[in-house]
Structure to design on (317 residues):
């Protein structure tokens, strides 16, 4: 009995002792590092710093922007994917995590190495011709391309605009002369000068010139109408399951602490609904497209599948 009494007493002490333990601190207890895989001053960096500015009041801790440029984003993408999954290192990703993983299987990142927090901006791809062109629809453009060689601009092999053109070639059974330009301004000048027939770029780059009549957008490569080009048909509407966009979102390493991941997704949603943040992004000409958690993962998985299918049929490198 004495032995049983001692065991019972020890159990009571243990239970009481547990009650005396300090409560676990809520995430976050300290500033959160936010990796930007590009140099300061670029569009992703500007967006990241704007997001950090608003996020602090909802997160309760600063988001500290850390630029890790190099190798077309690979250094930053790797830093995010291989970070400790405690919620104190997150960062910005885009379709580069997909194309790099396809063309360089040795990299340490892919769609499957991240926990998706939220996509904030998606700038859909758009194919446009000169405003005074006799062509008026995508089908007319395709029919013309079957009769003569049309030249289309892009901003580099493997980029989202290049891949959109490549997908169109395969889907429509045409061959286009694809010419790289150092930026959208050069491509527009070449188009207006009659040196090329079309430009493939992003909605934010073309919306102003299109509204003035200098460009005639034929198709937006998305599944829903672009807010800035609501009257331009989508690829899906025209029967072309082509997705192309310059998206910018936030992710952390896979298997993040559940409490941290939940909080970060919640904060991203709060920032995305902040009227002042929305207005600031309008001024920056950044089209908001908010996808939280699983929605963002599904979006990236769709792009991953489309690009992998394309790579199998027509490797671009």
């Amino acid at each position: 009995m004495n032995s049983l009494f001692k065991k019972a007493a020890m159990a009571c002490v243990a239970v009481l002792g547990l009650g005396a333990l300090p409560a676990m601190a809520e995430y976050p207890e300290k500033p959160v590092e936010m990796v930007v895989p590009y140099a300061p001053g670029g569009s992703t960096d500007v967006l990241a710093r704007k997001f950090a500015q608003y996020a602090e009041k909802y997160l309760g801790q600063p988001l500290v922007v850390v630029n890790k440029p190099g190798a077309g984003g690979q250094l930053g993408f790797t830093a995010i994917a291989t970070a400790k999954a405690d919620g104190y290192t997150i960062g910005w990703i885009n379709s580069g995590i997909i194309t790099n993983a396809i063309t360089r299987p040795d990299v340490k990142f892919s769609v499957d190495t991240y926990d998706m927090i939220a996509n904030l901006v998606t700038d859909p791809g758009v194919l446009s011709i000169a405003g005074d062109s006799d062509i008026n629809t995508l089908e007319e453009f395709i029919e013309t391309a079957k009769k003569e060689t049309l030249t289309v601009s892009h901003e580099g092999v493997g980029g989202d605009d290049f891949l959109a053109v490549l997908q169109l070639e395969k889907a429509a059974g045409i061959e286009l002369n694809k010419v790289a330009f150092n930026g959208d301004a050069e491509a527009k000048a070449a188009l207006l000068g009659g040196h090329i027939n079309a430009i493939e770029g992003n909605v934010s780059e073309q919306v102003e010139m299109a509204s003035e009549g200098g460009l005639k957008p034929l198709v937006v490569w998305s599944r829903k109408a672009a807010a800035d080009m609501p009257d331009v048909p989508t690829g899906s509407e025209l029967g072309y399951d082509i997705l192309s966009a310059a998206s910018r979102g936030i992710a952390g390493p896979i298997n993040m602490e559940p409490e941290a991941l939940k909080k970060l997704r919640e904060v991203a949603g709060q920032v995305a609904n902040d009227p002042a943040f929305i207005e600031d992004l309008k001024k920056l000409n950044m089209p908001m497209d908010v996808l939280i958690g699983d929605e963002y993962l599904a979006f990236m998985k769709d792009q991953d599948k489309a690009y992998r299918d394309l790579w199998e049929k027509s490797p671009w490198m």
